[in-house]
Amino acid sequence: MGSSTQVALFVAPLLVFVALLFGNPMDLAFTAFEVAAVALGVGVVTVISLESPSLLGEAFQRAGILRGSAAKDPLQREIAEYLGLSAPGEVLVAPVRLHDQVVNLLCIWTGAGERFPDDALQTLMELVQGAAAAYRALAERTKRQQ
User: What is the CATH number for 119?
Assistant: First the structure.
């Protein structure tokens, strides 16, 4: 069973019961507006990612760190706009892998018109290795608790 299925079958119902303990009942009946908002968000990201290849998509497929211009990546521009930030200059994207599967993507930006220093790739690789070690430790701890 995949992790998203586990969350759907365990964590969401658990939150309903925890909310009851705190005297703030919560149900899983969403309004039409909430469902439409989530659907719209998924649709926007899908359309943007299908328009042209993004650095995030490429990094997900590759084993190494990608370095690229955010100006050529519509998804990076959209993320910056959503966060209310100016468009980034350069982007580094690195996949974090656990058992040969990508479990996360680390993405860092420079400011507009700026570039990363030469040692940025090495620093990001160290961060990726640390994140992968943390995921491995978490997976081992979870396995022992089962």
Answer: 3.30.450.40
pLDDT digits (tens, 9 = 90+) for 120-135: 888 888 888 888 888 8
* Residue that has been written with the tokens 């430790």 in this structure: 137
Cβ count near 104 (within 10 Å): 15
pLDDT tens digits, 77-95: 777 787 788 878 888 888 8
11 in a structural domain: no
Do residues 80 and 70 make contact, with C-beta atoms less than 8 angstroms apart?
yes
Domain that includes residue 118, residue range: 54-145
User: What is the 8-class DSSP label of residue 138?
Assistant: H
- Altogether, the residues listed in the chain come to a count of 146
Cα separation of 124 and 138, whole Å? 21
- Of the two residues 55 and 16, the one the predictor is more confident about is 16
* Dihedral-angle region of residue 23 (phi above 0 means left; psi in -120 to 50 means alpha; beta otherwise): left
Is 103 within the bounds of a domain?
yes
Instruction: Please give the model's pTM, rounded to 2 decimal places.
Output: 0.54
Please state, in angstroms and rounded to a whole number, the distance separating the CA atoms of residues 120 and 35. 40
Cα(104)–Cα(95) distance, rounded to whole angstroms? 6
How many Å apart are CA 56 and CA 93, to the nearest integer? 7
